[in-house]
Amino acid sequence: MLSFLDLYKSCFANKSITHEGLVQKLRNNQQKIYVLHDQNRAVSFVWLLIQPDIYEILDIGTDPQMRRTSHARSLLEFVKQEMKQNACQNLLLEVRQDNAIAIIFYESEGFILSGRRQSYYADGCDALLYNYKS
């Protein structure tokens, strides 16, 4: 789990999480974290909120040194397969409007822009809402 915490911190320097905070969040049966390892090192993850008819990506990240290696794409494919097995058709996420690389990635994975939260982030940036339907 410590390797996951290191990965999380490398992906989201502006967010903080502790081991205790992580354990507390995972006690909530509606949240799951899938971590992809490469040579015994956490390199990518997806953090989900799972409800019977909707999966929501809370966070997704890849080690900055390992980006553009299809790790996040592999995790999304895994999540999509799990959704099918659980008869779930909706996968939601939000992304900062100024995160062009992430937006291109999500759209290439079939996500459709479904809404906007104006001035959602502390710095005034809008959040874009995306939906993937299987």
Keywords:
134 residues, alpha+beta, Aminopeptidase, 4 helices
Report on the structure:
By secondary structure, this protein is of the alpha+beta class. The protein contains four helices and six strands, in the order H-H-E-E-E-H-E-H-E-E. It has a domain at 1-68: Aminopeptidase. Strands 1-2-3-4-6-5 form a six-stranded mixed β-sheet. The longest helix is centred in the middle third of the chain and has 15 residues, at 71-85.
CATH homologous superfamily heading of the domain at 1-68: Gcn5-related N-acetyltransferase (GNAT)
Distance between the termini: 31 Å
Largest sheet: 6 strands, mixed
Strand content: 35-45%
CATH architecture of the domain at 1-68: 3-Layer(aba) Sandwich
* Unreliable stretches: none
Overall residue-averaged pLDDT value = 89
Structural Rg: 15 Å
Number of helices: 4
Q: State the order of secondary-structure elements, H for helix, E for strand.
A: HHEEEHEHEE
Large-scale geometry: globular
**Derived structural class:** alpha+beta
Kindly identify the CATH topology of the domain at 1-68: Aminopeptidase
- Helical fraction equals 25-40%
Please give the number of β-strands: 6
Assign the CATH class of the domain at 1-68. Answer: Alpha Beta
Strand line-up across the major sheet? 1-2-3-4-6-5
